[in-house]
Amino acid sequence: MNATLISYGFASVAFVALSAMAVSRRGANRTGMFMAASVISALWAGLAALDAYHGQHISSLTAITELLRDAAWLYFLLDLVNQRQGMQPKTMSILRVAGYVMLAYCALLIVRIVADSLSIFPGLVDLPILDTLLGGAVSRVILAVLGMALVEQLFRSTRSEDRWGIKYLCFGLGGMLVYDFYLYSDAMLFQHIDAEIWAGRGIVNALSVPLIAISAKRNPNWDLRVTVSRRLFFHTAALLGAGVYLLIMAGAGYYIRTFGGEWSSILQAAFLFGAFVILLSVLFSGTLRARVRVFLSKHFFSYTYDYRDEWLNFTRILSQGDPGEQLCTRAIQAVAGLVESQSGALWLTREPHRFTRIVSWNLHHADGEEPVDGALAEFLTQREWVINLDEYRSQPELYEGLQLPAWINAIPDAWLLAPLLVRDKLIGFMIIGRSLGKIPFNWEVSDLIKTAARQAAANLAQMEAAEALTVARQFESFNRMAAFVVHDLKNLIAQQSLLVSNAGKYKHNPEFVDDMISTVESSVARMDRLLQQLKGGQPAVLTEQKIELGGLLSEIIGEKHVYRLKPVLQIDVASIEVNADHERLKRVLGHILQNALEATPYDGHIEVHLSLQDDDAVIDITDTGCGMDDAFIRERLFRPFDSTKGSGMGIGAYECREYILELGGRIDVTSTPGQGTTFNIHIPAENTRRETGNLTQGEIA
């Protein structure tokens, strides 16, 4: 049985079923157009099957019906695309006119077929241009390319959440159009329609019908929410333009082959290769792409910019890469990219009283400096304008007497000057080079550059603040180290001063002399450690080790022998060890005891009590001194650089608490004004050995 007859018979039956489905859902205008396209497709497939039955290749009536089928589907697609949101009324009118032109083209093709059949207008038909554009294979390729472009634009401009209702229509019609392109491209190449490819066309159309039917069921009225995308519109225009260009070049190549004589094949190959190279050069030309994008935005959209895409791209450029100087370059690239520029330079107040150039990106001779209190800075701060340097040179009166520095006017490619404002404070400015796309400067460009420059300024200010914070932290670390060193020196001086004050009274006492020598040795060792720390410029390296607290407390109390008041040490557990740095823990506990000695009168009492509670070593240092109120303990006791002593540094108690917290412990303070204070210190204990009974300082000695 004839394969072509079966193929187109199936296609006719499928389109009849699709037409019946469309009739049952008749309503909106688009539904009527869909029904018309389905009916004409069924008629075309039936006529093609009838041609196959009679052994006829392609009749004129079948060819005319095929053109009507193509025109109906293309107009239906164009009507769907015309639903897009965000288009100017002028653009929608242009699309409607394009639909009419397409219908007129199909009408001319029908006239060509009728003229060939009736042998009328022979001179008109034989014109080379009309013969090419209205030729059977070439004209069908043009229609297929137009259809594929419309399908691609419809699919990609439909919102992702709405594509479920349109994707099968795009797949079905797209498959039919791609097969038509394949069929007629082959016919153009070999100058005849391949019978096997033609026979398979009916099956392809029949298989496409169920896909179209799915979308028809999901869209009874074909009321789609289609949004326009400038990027996709540009891509589609580029694709369509490239397709038309290749068709024209192919036609020109055909004429070269036909009329070129002996060199026709060589000339055709050279011509087509040259045409392809020119196409690639055009497609990869940044300047041409920019100008085409500006042209399409200007004539087909209400606004020049797709602000969503522009802002996403702007944010992406600013946020990528490393911070620091690269952010300055990225800020220029992000702002300049909005106007299709590939050059710029940035000035910031890195030095007092003047703006200095931080970075230049492809902008030559941008080396000047500007005072922060100059006329330019005052103008930018007050007006917040984006200065068009070309407009300034031709109409300086528009800028209210502003006198730009000579070095700015000397930059050959400078175009726009944008202020960098943060909370109405000028932190710098940016000069942008000329646009590759020759974008006209208007209110929209000015507002966009001004807004983008503010955002870039915020990022740059954040970068400057982060760098300043890093430097401040480095100074803070150094100052903290210096404060602790000064604090230790103060304690050493106080200890030595006490020795000197008692030397006149006890210098003939051998025990006092021995204690004095021991104290001086300890002081020398501590000062040597401080000197090594200062030489290194870094805090001392802490070496944690197991420390037996009873021995450490005895050592600390022993060094306080120069005071008339003698602290009493009471130990409940013979051996309690903690893991800590020996010198730092000794300094911390010694400071608390030192404060107790200074706050307690000679007839008072100080007790140091060591015990074990659960897994913590507990040290209680209790005195009967002047005491503190709760507000002082809560708000000032552990605040750094807050001291009640005239010569104090105010960091001793702060260091005590910080180190105890580092060890995983805590400090609790209870005090009553006029009665005394107790420091309750908890430190996680290591190995312990409990013994009954209490040991006093005298017993340990």
Automatic annotation (TrEMBL):
Residues 484-687 form the Histidine kinase domain. The keyword Transmembrane applies. Its EC number is 2.7.13.3. CDD domains: HisKA. InterPro entries: GAF-like_dom_sf, HATPase_C_sf, HATPase_dom, His_kinase_dom, HisK_dim/P_dom, Sig_transdc_His_kin-like_C, XrtA/PrsK. GO terms for molecular function: phosphorelay sensor kinase activity. The chain crosses the membrane at residues 6-24, 31-50, 93-114, 134-154, 166-185, 197-216, 237-256, 268-288. It catalyses: ATP + protein L-histidine = ADP + protein N-phospho-L-histidine. Keywords: Kinase, Membrane, Phosphoprotein, Transferase, Transmembrane, Transmembrane helix. PANTHER family: HYBRID SIGNAL TRANSDUCTION HISTIDINE KINASE C, TWO-COMPONENT HISTIDINE KINASE. This is histidine kinase. It comes from Sulfuriferula multivorans.
